[in-house]
## 1
Amino acid sequence: MTGMVGVAGNVAYGFNTIHVSLGGVDLVDADGAATLVKPLGLVFVLALLLTAIGLAVTGTAPRWAALLIGIASVTWPASHIPNIAWLAVLTQVLLLVAFGGLYVTCRARVEPRVATAGLAG
């Protein structure tokens, strides 16, 4: 549930970015329903942190991937709230490397099973 709400928060901030770039008022500064943008955005960071903790505790991923996701969960708000571009780019690279590594690791675990299952048939 936290992950779904976190993704919704990330989408809300993406929508806000488009809105501001087209000349609209920043929804973070607006009243009413726009006040949902702030807490939803922070839930995205919480979802990243919980993902890192879950991967580290269960051992289902390499420790380095969990560590990179954990670091990114801290650098995400530190870069996006004050709008520090170089740190935001670094955060995205950390997430790309971490989740790319998870993809490669998971694929390596699944493919040998699929190949041997095909031979048994």
## 2
Amino acid sequence: AMVVCFYLQIGFSIGIMCAIPTNILTDDWRTEVAVPTLLTLTILPILLFDVRESPRYLLAKGMTGESFAELTHIGEKNGKKLPSNSFIAPMRSTERGKVYGYFDLFRYSPVRSYTINLCLQWFCIGVVYYGLTLASSQFAGTVHTNLFLSAFAE
């Protein structure tokens, strides 16, 4: 999921960066919408064909064969050969059938503190990002330059 979110964010930033030169070069709003949209949609094949299922998720669901296949695929892409199936045996003996929910994030003290910490960080980062976006028109430089630089930094 993290990779998918990363790819979606990259597409959004590329779309904004392409909208600025398009806005400067043309006065047609349709072109201003079409160019970033078409360039952003080029990310879609990566999302559909390159993002694979997490081996950890597959293992948690009890699909050890599929998990090993995903690990093998990742190893091939990285130019590494995985060891034999010897590390799959301990994985099979792990607890199965237990279903976890959102309330389990608050049940145990260490996990609770991590969850609250991450939620607060997420909130603060969102507020700062929102504030910088609103204040970008007040920065030195043109609106186009400020928006392009903020999209590039993103």
## 3
Amino acid sequence: MMEGRLQSQEDEITLLKSSLADALRRLRVHDQLIPLLKQQLIAGVSTRQRVHGVSLQKSLSQSIKMFIRGRPITMYVPSNIQNYEDLRMEPPVEKLELDWVYGYRGRDCRANLYLLSSGEAVYFIACVVVLYHINNRTQRHYRKHTDCVRCLTIHPDKVRVASGQTAGVDKDGKPLQPYVHIWDSSTLITLQQIGLGTFERGVGSVAFSFAVSFTVILHLMFAVEFNPSDSTNIITCGKSHIYFWTLSAGSLTKKQGIFGKYKKPKFIQCFVFSLTGDVLTGDSEGNILTWGKSPGDVKTLGKGAKETFQIMRQTRAHDGSVFTLCMLQGGALLSGGGKDRKIIRWSADLAPERECEVKDFGAVRCITDVNGEEVLVGTTRNAILRGTFSDGFVAIVQGHVDEMWGLATHPSQNVFLTCGHDRQVCVWNTEEHKLDWSTTLEEYGLCADFCPNGAVVSVGLSTGRWLVLDLQTKEVVSDYTDGNEQLSVMRYSPDGSFLAVGSHDNFIYVYNVTESGRRYSRYGKCNGHSSFITHLDWSKDGKYVMSNSGDYEILYWDVAGGCKLLRNRYESKDREWASYTCVLGFHVMGVWLEGSDGTDINALCRSHSERVVAVADDFCKVHLFQYPCPKPKAPNHSYEGHGSHVTNVRFTHCDSHLLSMGGKDTCILQWEVKRGGTGDGGETLKEGKRQSNQITFYWSHAPNTTGVDLTVKCLHTSP
């Protein structure tokens, strides 16, 4: 309650400060115009008086006002628009088609990497299940999930796939129920959706039986499998337990494994079935336990005693947890370690044979057999490795491991850069769909921009520090600090002679750039915002800057004139901008939906052709609008795939692709821009009824509630 009151008071203070600043600017504009009118009256120039009077009246009438969280935002209509009311908004001709998915969810998921009979590795990240052909290096995507995918398994036929998702909420705060998709991996056609209305919080693990068509679904527990030799027997494991379930007459009964003289581990994290029918488990103590069925001891337990499941053998395997076990052809076993980051090969009688370490990629999360010798390895640093003990392992899939915000595309090459809270700066190739190189910073990066010559890139960090990296040598060629708060935007002028740095200390720092982007000297500082800088853009002539702030201001700056604030914003209505990433402005006003609060749109980007604008919203969606889109409720194409707020979007240098970046989902989606009737289509929003020249937005908060479900359910699936 107290936090709510404090937040309300902070919002009121911000609103009062913003309103006061706006009122002062209006008074200054008024004071500047009155002397001009007086001069014209004294001179008796009646014709010029009438002309000026008309233009002044037009400037007042040809303005659009919108409100965000009670804050009025005035935007002036450009001179080339004669009648704003007659403007008609259409959805863009261009559409998006998902081309590539960068990343893998290994940090907090288990048993989520399999090999299909088609030679494709199947795994997931965000709301997308990826089918990656490990030899042809091509991708296909299953995209029917409405929230983050959390678990995956394949049918014994290696064609059918089951994938389960977590619960979530839509943009209106309504709960989205979790369920499981069963689909054909060859056609990507959904065969069944099961469990809808059955689960409350999410689906954490799924398994197919080997005989009759059953699927087991559960959460909280770490692993579940049907016994391959008995489809009425199901094994589950989790916190300090292993359960042996029996399915009979539609009901499940369980028996708990008995640890006896052995120390009970905190977690049993994985298990496999040996060729002899025993169950092998890996636990948090670093041991592999061999479980077997013991016949009931009538003398001890009495008449009718039933068999029990006990530990037959304990094998010390890893320093730290055993995260995964994989049974190979011929009976050999692979185990993957957590703390020691090792992969160990064991003989059928659990004698260690070979081992290797994958220290650069995190702990071993899961292992999948390719051909008895070659394996795929998923790691906790969201990488998938391919290799053998003899030849070593190389990464075929890589990604960030924490929230991402910084995104920049190269001005002339098919390359883009990302940075985020994992302190990694990554440079990716959009043609070869791979990571070219990465480097680790001392602090986490939040924003970036390439110099127009393409030789260097600047990266803004969380402490007010910013670096300039050479794209070829990966070396830091310049290192500066402005203030002590995080930087939110870096933007070079079109000719590369200036760099503007937007900070959370409310200032924009402007630097002269020389020596092909390797040398910087402070030119000036833009002082006038009453809140932190969020976005900024340069004019095409490189003389002016437009900026947005956290309290929804739109300000204009005369950089060439000494970083002066342009008090009369009306004078900037016809200015042309080299880029358009500001989320507030006349040309992009239509991207805001009614009822939005000021944080619903995280980023936008106009294409270089100036035909479309892409929008990253807070509800996991990417939108494509016609540019300009100055009318409210502008129709657009909407695309899903991210499982978290979309933090940034950028077009490649030739507008052939759009890149979108998720926050917590650590996922980068590469979309191909299609013309005409091709593309995914997405959701096309119908044009709303025409509005007056005032739009009102109201604050609405959609809570995100996720959790766990302690249920185990066995559902019958169609054959």
## 4
Amino acid sequence: MVFDRGYFEVIPKIEKILIDVPWYADSEWNNVKGQLSTVDRHYSYIHSVIHSIGTHQIHHLFTKVPHYHLEEATIHFRKAFPDLVRINEESILVSFSRMCKIFTKQRCIDQDVRIFTYSNDEIDNKKKTS
């Protein structure tokens, strides 16, 4: 039960909240931008147990790819589109803790912001693209 709750809390956050991953206002967002705004991670010894869900960009871009082909599809995607790939190899707990702190400090976004990225700055909600 604790593992399930932790899994559903931590995994989705660290695959979608990261420094320099853009968040789009409704006027800027589309399916492809949203799908490419996810982050691939490797979950060490549980990676295969959780069906390679760390290959998150492929999981979102091509929802019909079965989990047992996600790794192979990810290899091809990374070769074909290296400029679109987002990978984070940081420890899961370190990443989650760091991003929670950043999210807490940078959670308020002005209404007129069309594209927002989190930054390492202490409280930098000025780093926005309008």
